[in-house]
Amino acid sequence: MTQQAHDILNAYIDGELGPDEAAELEARMAEDPDTLRAFETLVRQKTQVREALDALATGPANLKTERLKRRLASKLAGRASPARRLGVGWLRPGAQIAAACALFAFGWWGHATVTTPPAGIPDYVSEAIGAHQVFADDPVYPVEFAGAAVDGVADWFAGKIGVPVAAPDLAEYGVTLVGARLLGTKEGPLAQYIYEDGRGARYSLTLAQHPEKEPIGPVTVVDYPNRSVGYWRTPKVDFAFVGEGGAGDVQRIAMDLSSKI
């Protein structure tokens, strides 16, 4: 499947296609099993992201308050109710169910857009952690681009995100690049680079365009169950480095990266 076709499916799930485009895509899914399978795959991925973020409820206390849970559930329900606004009104009954599932399953989308970042943690950091849990440990398809293809898509990534991005070399830390993928969120696209150390532990570096008028900041490390994240913000790019090792390793690499890129 081409990237353009992938983007159209994402837009369909997000309710961003017009009636004619949506109808055309529905007809294509009815006739083309490959397109339908690609749609179902996206739904599954978004479900996995939701489950990953649900798992974070066992993390720091300020991430698991009942008030935030209620706000998230309430606002997601409110967003899903106007069917035509979300594009669901244009779907056949079976597709309506699948699209509704996808809308609720879009974990990092919902977390970033309907909750206030706890304790000042930026939204993109939550998205980076959710994406790490879903993709970094996937033994079958952790990345979209691997090997030389990672360098080949650097310009394409930069065009999507709006700022130059690249995969830093972490060989000096005993960590090698597995590959990369582009993540779509309501805040905008993010680049995710996945790495692996000699023990098979996975790390990920997520990059996002720094929003105008948002503050910049030095490296901050936050501990979660079985992983830590070091994040920092620059005038052009925001970074989040997620690792399954100790917080000390994550902080050391994040500090070094922040001084180099």
UniProtKB/TrEMBL annotation:
Coiled coil: none
Residue span(s) of domain Putative zinc-finger: 4-27
InterPro entries to which the protein is assigned, alphabetical: Anti-sigma-K/W_factor, Znf_put
Domain of life, source organism: Bacteria
Pfam families, per database record: zf-HC2 (PF13490)
Protein name according to UniProt: Anti-sigma factor family protein
The species this protein was found in: Tropicimonas aquimaris
